[in-house]
UniProtKB/TrEMBL annotation:
It is found in: Nucleus. Non catalytic subunit of RNase H2, an endonuclease that specifically degrades the RNA of RNA:DNA hybrids. Participates in DNA replication, possibly by mediating the removal of lagging-strand Okazaki fragment RNA primers during DNA replication. Mediates the excision of single ribonucleotides from DNA:RNA duplexes. It comes from the Eukaryota. Residues 27-109 form the Rnh202 triple barrel domain. It comes from Talaromyces stipitatus (strain ATCC 10500 / CBS 375.48 / QM 6759 / NRRL 1006) (Penicillium stipitatum). Residues 252-282, 353-396 are annotated as: Disordered. Keywords: Nucleus. This is Ribonuclease H2 subunit B.
């Protein structure tokens, strides 16, 4: 019988326990300093406090991207130690996280947190003036304590100034740099970020749902060709022993569509073959790139820009002053919309004609059945004798039925 000591020393009996207390698993940068901190900062778009990771000396500012299993395929995570120097008993210790969810630290540009400061929604008289950075920061009385810690951090000051130059016009005055917010510079910076996104490749879900499906030409028609089968039947006449070859051709029903191709007689062809409209635009690659660029810009605006700046950037992109000409993309999208409407109307007409054909066939069959019934009645009437016809004319309303004479007497 095993002793208590044997049970304890057996690593196979160490079963990880499930953690009931809600926990979160964060994956942080491998290179970080002792000054790194978790901070709660207002989201640039909504203003809601979210958790971020800030390292002023090494890697900068990070947001957390959640990676979790779906509700349709739930998963759990087993956490154990893999240190080979530990004892066997210690290596067996671990725990299970019931919910497979990881929060991965991904870099975020501090520029987005500076936008509500340099371009507030309620513009003041000093918003369009050149000002020192300290004056711009001091004018914000409602800055959160953690955001104030970032913008006034001495180790991170050079990064703040460099990102301010990316979205502001600058000038020198008395050995001091002054800043004024510029919508043009902000748009140029956003376009640079969007171009970097599409150069690395959009996620497969975005590429499938917003690029390929949007630019896919519609299915205009279905081609149906005749399927002709030639069968030679040899008939031997008993009287003269001559051989006669009779050719019988069975032809399948042909549906006329938008596009038909002629095939030589007697050659079997596929019954159905999809027909699509080819890319009309010669620069389909540039159109696809413009669409990817628009999708990337839309993602950045919705995720990181305050509502007032997002609306303003959208107005600039639609104006003649836009640095990107989206007219080829808009023309192609309008052309595809017209083709889809035409294809929908064509399919509706085909369905209507097919329905009418079925109704006509039903009507023809009903008329044929009525005609057959009338002819049968006429034949039956002609087959009756004269005596039977005369008997049918006799008034039998007052007469007893034949069955009355065969009833049992009561």
């Amino acid at each position: 019988m095993p002793t208590e000591e044997t049970k304890t020393s057996n690593p196979k009996r160490k079963i990880p326990q499930s953690v009931d207390v809600p926990t979160k698993t964060f994956i942080l940068p491998s290179k970080r300093s002792d000054a790194a901190r978790f901070l709660s900062l207002p989201n640039p778009t909504s203003g809601v406090l979210n958790r971020y990771f800030f390292d002023p000396e090494e890697t900068g500012l990070y947001e957390f991207t959640a990676v979790a299993s779906t509700q349709f395929a739930p998963r759990s995570i087993l956490f154990t130690s893999n240190n080979s120097n530990e004892k066997t008993e210690e290596r067996a210790k671990g725990y299970l996280a019931k919910k497979a969810e990881l929060f991965i630290a991904t870099p975020i540009d501090v520029l987005f947190f500076m936008l509500p400061i340099v371009a507030p929604a309620d513009k003041t008289s000093t918003s369009n003036m050149f000002q020192p950075l300290d004056d711009i920061l001091d004018s914000q009385d409602e800055l959160s304590a953690h955001l104030r810690y970032i913008v006034y951090n001495a180790s991170f000051r050079s990064t703040i100034e460099r990102r301010m130059q990316a979205i502001c016009d600058t000038m020198e005055a008395a050995d001091e740099k002054l800043y004024r917010f510029s919508e043009t510079k902000l748009l140029a910076e956003l376009i640079t970020k969007a171009a970097r996104m599409i150069a690395q490749g959009l996620p497969a879900s975005l590429e499938q749902n917003f690029i390929q499906k949007t630019l896919a030409p519609p299915l205009m028609s279905v081609k149906r060709e005749d399927t002709v089968t030639t069968t030679a039947t040899i008939i031997e006449h008993e009287e003269n022993q001559d051989l006669e070859v009779v050719e019988m051709q069975s032809t399948s029903t042909t549906t006329i569509s938008t596009t038909l191709s002629a095939e030589p007689s007697g050659v079997s062809t596929p019954a159905t073959q999809p027909s699509t409209v080819d890319e009309i635009s010669p620069s389909s690659g540039s159109v696809a790139r413009l669409l990817r660029l628009r999708i990337a810009l839309s993602f950045i605006k919705q995720s990181y820009l305050p509502p007032n700046l997002s609306t303003r950037i959208e107005e600039i992109l639609k104006s003649p002053e836009s640095p990107i000409d989206f007219k080829p993309l808009d023309d192609r999208l309008k052309e595809l919309a017209d083709l889809r409407a035409e294809a929908f109307a064509s399919r509706a007409m085909e369905d209507l004609s097919r329905k009418r054909g079925f109704e006509e066939e039903d009507g023809d069959s009903e008329r044929a059945a009525a005609k057959r019934k009338k002819e049968e009645e006429k034949k039956a009437k002609a087959a009756e004798s004269r005596g039977v016809r005369e008997l049918k004319k006799v008034n039998t309303s007052g007469m007893k039925k034949m069955s009355d004479f065969f009833k049992k007497k009561s």
